[in-house]
Amino acid sequence: MRSRRRADRTDLPGQVVLVLQGGGALGSYQAGVYQGLQEAGIEPDWIIGTSIGAINASLIAGNEPQRRLERLLRAFWSRVQRVPRWGFEGAFPGLDGRWSHRSTLTQGIPRFFTPNPLAHAGDAFLLGADHAGYYSTAPLDHTLAELVNFDLINQGRPRLTMGAAHVRTSRMRYFDTRDGRLDARHIMASGTLPPAFPPVRIDGELYWDGGILSDTPTKAVFDDNPRRDSVIFSVHLWNPVGPEPMTMADVLNRHKDVEYSSRIASQIARHQQMHRLRHVINELASRLPESKRSNPEVRELLGYGCQTRMHVVRLLAPQLEYEDHTEDIDFSQTGIEQRWEAGYTHTKAVLARKPRMDHFDPLSGVVLHEAKDLTALVAE
Known about the structure:
Number of strands: 11
Radius of gyration: 22 Å
Oligomer: single chain
Order of helices and strands: EHEHHHEEHHEEHEEHEHHHEHEH
Largest sheet: 9 strands, mixed
Structural class: alpha/beta
Distance between the termini: 25 Å
């Protein structure tokens, strides 16, 4: 597919940032989002990912634009999907997902992760810190070696950032091509969700999936130094809004959505407040005479101000029919294809509506653009 990297970038006010949340099999939605962006001539300047989002981010950053979609994003998702073997897939709605769920639990995903039999030897069995998980992610290491060019990643175009949780201190660590060289360990560390997967050791320290602390790492953009005007496409896989649960299956499903989606809403609200205050400081500074602004103590206080503006375009994966709390391990061919198509359809619809980025409160530093009624767009 031909790249049109700069064709339609002139009306975007700032760097383009793609933020990819964690969510296992739900991550095929992100691949569809990227396809929609690429076809519109929009390539990210910076990609930030956690868990499956880190894997998708590395596939994008680790390949030339013309190779990213068909040869690599599709190559990865075709490797990890489960194709039903009974020959009548689709005849019984929901059967593909249930078969995929049970097969994944018992057999793993051959190109992604495989069972660790010793993990079932008892809770007190000494596995060692580097192997303490129900599955081994060694197959993922080989898959990344096939599909990702790390020399290209470390050129930093686009910049790549991935979040991981430091096991000993419970602190978030962002591995960033701006700060140092990245390799497969950093990607895998970002996606090792316990207790399923063992931690990954980097520079003598162990790391788990960054989603434990921040499943949607938009915070990395808000806190970047120096901050820049940005258009942030924030791709969400867990639904923050849902109906009251009526069954235990509903409870399990809604619990996951609440657990993994709630942080981003509070993050955006907090940063909207913080950046508004930074703009207020700038406004107050403009009303001070030069003699006051040149005072060293006043200058230090004015340093807390900021003129940058960040537009956040939020894309939200729909809940597919017959999905339940096992959706994040539904690697069925049907589920992956439907989520990919949903991401593609949503992104095209959002870009066609052309979110207005020239109308906002002058004191707003973070402007949120919500994509309304996205679930209905899948059927359009």
